[in-house]
Amino acid sequence: MKKKFWVGLLIGLGAVIVLLFGFRLANELRHMGRPPKPQPFAIITDVTLIRDWMTVPYISHTYGVPPRVLFEALDIPEKENHEKSMAEIDAQYFPGQEGHAIQLVQAAIQKFQEQAPPNAPTIPVP
């Protein structure tokens, strides 16, 4: 009698383990091939942190502003300037006006942030 009890208990425990991992496997297989959910990221709002080594795509990602908006503010083509830093853009498009590209980008970001939805997560900078 005692032996039958332990055998039944072990079989039941094995069945629970198989079902548990079976459901987990089925769930993973169901989600396989789908793109992962994007992780929410906080948007920095202090435009004084922009430096001349930053590129437009970097600034765009950091401040949550589409790159198109920044390139339009700079009034330069996006394709040729995608990998150029603010210093390189200044030298090419605004010679003799050091920091002008950063000022234009800062103004565009502030304007965009004023129009941005209020529920966007932000990082306040002291």
- What percent of residues are in strands? under 5%
Average pLDDT rating = 85
Q: Given the helix and strand composition, which structural class is it?
A: mainly alpha
Distance between the termini: 73 Å
Number of separate strands: 2
Using only CA atoms, what is the Rg? 27 Å
The biggest beta sheet, please?
A: 2 strands, parallel
| Helix count, DSSP H or I runs of 4 or more residues | 6
> How are the strands of the biggest sheet laid out side by side?
1-2
Unreliable stretches covering 5 or more consecutive residues: none
Give helix % range.
55-70%
Shape: rod-shaped
Question: What does this protein look like?
Answer:
This protein is mostly helical and 126 residues long. It folds into two domains: 37 residues; 81 residues. Helices cover 59% and strands 3% of the residues. It has a two-stranded parallel sheet with strand order 1-2.
Short summary of the structure?
This protein is mainly alpha-helical. It contains 6 helices and 2 strands. The longest helix has 30 residues, at 2-31.
Highlighted features:
single chain, 126 residues, mainly alpha, 2 domains, two-stranded parallel sheet, 6 helices, 59% helix, 3% strand
